[in-house]
Amino acid sequence: MDARQVLEEHVVEEEGERVDRWATRHFARLPTRGAARKACKRGDLLLGGQPVESSRFVRLGDRVALLDSAELHPACAIDPEVVYADARCALVVKPAGLLVNGNRHRTLEHALPNVLPRSSEPDALVAARPVHRLDFETTGLVAVARCHRVLVAWSRDFEERRVRKRYRAIVVGRLEGEGRVEAVLDGREAVSTWSAVQAFRCLKTGWCTVVDLEPLTGRMHQLRRHLLSIGHPVLGDRRYCLDGLYLKGSGLFLAAVHLDLPDPDGGDGRIAATIAPPAKMESFVVREERRWARWHGKNPAD
Description:
Blueprint: E1 6-11, H1 19-24, H2 33-42, E2 45-47, E3 50-51, E4 63-67, E5 81-85, E6 89-94, H3 108-111, E7 124-130, E8 139-147, H4 148-159, E9 164-172, E10 178-182, E11 191-202, E12 206-215, H5 222-229, E13 254-262, E14 270-274, H6 279-296
Parallel strand pairs: 8-13
Antiparallel strand pairs: 1-4, 2-3, 2-4, 5-6, 6-8, 7-8, 9-12, 9-13, 10-11, 11-12, 13-14
């Protein structure tokens, strides 16, 4: 057998099923058939001690092992804030400027062992795993699975839009009231809602507005692209609005402040958390209003 670490190993107790489908029901790190097929392609899934193609069928008594694709990454030197945690799952705060996961060492996933040891649940994952993504530049709440059933349940909940998310942002220009944006992104339906919280004067742009946002679908950079489409880009967005460069060094003024998910075990309750917006948002509002008043010598609301 391969000399790499065996993460899990199981004996087949029923036959007549493709190994990729069978693996999704038995290996905590392979929640989907796509993940199982990739493991086969990498040579991480062994049947009888040998790499196996995803199209192979398992037989009664076969031993199937999952190898780590590399040595487990050591935890990076970040201690993300844990807002909620139980033996099954957690809600943590991802700092801005940090990837959720990926091949780099410095990611939220590689920092989770610092604050979330392996669960005592029977189907515990080897290490806690984020269930969804948050943009590199965005800070805020991320849902984390500590066991296999939660990873599967919450992944399905995100896909079927049963998760409620709210963001806080500062956008360029003046907005009042509330609205809905329905603009196709990458050929797929995309819907977001916005609600103005506070408009304030800004020397650079004339007006800025603090808004609450809810993405009703989950497309890449959806909120940022939708706001740009209605003429109110997120402050500091260097990817979708070149004017954001004047805030170089301040980062993106967008944060995931509320997350609400169904109970992963099917109970009637929900698991939810709300955090305060980043301090830089309030500081920016106060600073810009003072600068406007000093420059124009009048009330910023005029």
